């Protein structure tokens, strides 16, 4: 589970009236400790910070260090430049995930798994990649729709439906 330190309701670079803000470190530490106590050792807990845009590198390192000390197994960061992305893993005393934000409007670098590993990250969070693929597939399906035939049934529709139902435990 990933717990982030943004205020609620969230305001990110892609929202109207953008004002990204983070909660106080102490409050985030309390959230992580409660999650660790509740989830126990079976929970993989990631403390996510969005503080690059509001506090810079020093604050990111301070927050990541506190989140790891509070029981997070790893931390997740959103560096705003490649130069910052190169620095973070060596400054944080624990595992760091890199957040790939494809299509972002603020110029964050998108790393390949090989690049991320070379920089010292333990993983990539790909929060948008599957949504983008699904969106593109839905657009293609909508383009294939006709007023006469609608969407033509495909031979593998039953297999796809069965896979979805199985995945959902239905």
Can you describe what's shown?
By secondary structure, this protein is an alpha/beta fold. Helices cover 46% and strands 11% of the residues. It has 6 helices and 5 strands. The chain has helices at residues 25-39, 52-69, 82-91, 113-119, 129-144, 157-168, and strands at 2-4, 46-48, 74-77, 96-100, 123-126. A 5-stranded parallel β-sheet has the order 1-2-3-4-5. Helix 4 links the parallel strand 4 and strand 5. The protein starts with a strand and ends with a helix. The mean pLDDT is 91.
Helices and strands in order:
Layout lengths: L1 E3 L20 H15 L6 E3 L3 H18 L4 E4 L4 H10 L4 E5 L12 H7 L3 E4 L2 H16 L12 H12 L2
Parallel strand pairs: 1-2, 2-3, 3-4, 4-5
Mean pLDDT: 91
Proportion of helical residues: 40-55%
What is the β-strand count? 5
Biggest β-sheet description: 5 strands, parallel
Supply Rg.
20 Å
Distance between the termini: 24 Å
Assembly status: single chain
Task: Report low-confidence residues grouped into runs of 5 or more.
Answer: none
The largest sheet has its strands arranged as: 1-2-3-4-5
Overall geometry comes to: globular
Strand content: 5-15%
| Order of helix and strand elements from N to C terminus | EHEHEHEHEHH
With helices defined by DSSP (H or I, 4 residues minimum), what is the helix count? 6
- Given helix and strand content, the structural type is alpha/beta
């Amino acid at each position: 589970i990933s717990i982030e330190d943004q205020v609620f309701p969230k305001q990110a670079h892609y929202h109207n009236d953008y004002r990204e803000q983070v909660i106080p470190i102490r409050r985030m530490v309390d959230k992580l400790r409660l999650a660790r106590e509740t989830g126990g050792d079976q929970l993989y807990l990631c403390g996510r910070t969005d503080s690059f845009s509001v506090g810079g590198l020093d604050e990111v390192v301070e927050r990541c260090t506190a989140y790891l000390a509070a029981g997070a197994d790893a931390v997740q960061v959103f560096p705003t430049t490649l130069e910052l992305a190169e620095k973070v893993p060596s400054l944080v005393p624990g595992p760091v995930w890199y957040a790939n934000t494809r299509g972002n409007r603020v110029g964050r670098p998108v790393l390949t798994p090989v690049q991320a590993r070379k920089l010292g990250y333990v993983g990539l969070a790909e929060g948008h990649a599957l949504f983008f693929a699904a969106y593109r597939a839905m657009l293609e399906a909508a383009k294939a729709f006709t007023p006469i035939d609608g969407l033509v049934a495909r031979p593998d529709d039953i297999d796809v439906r069965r896979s979805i139902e199985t995945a959902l435990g239905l």
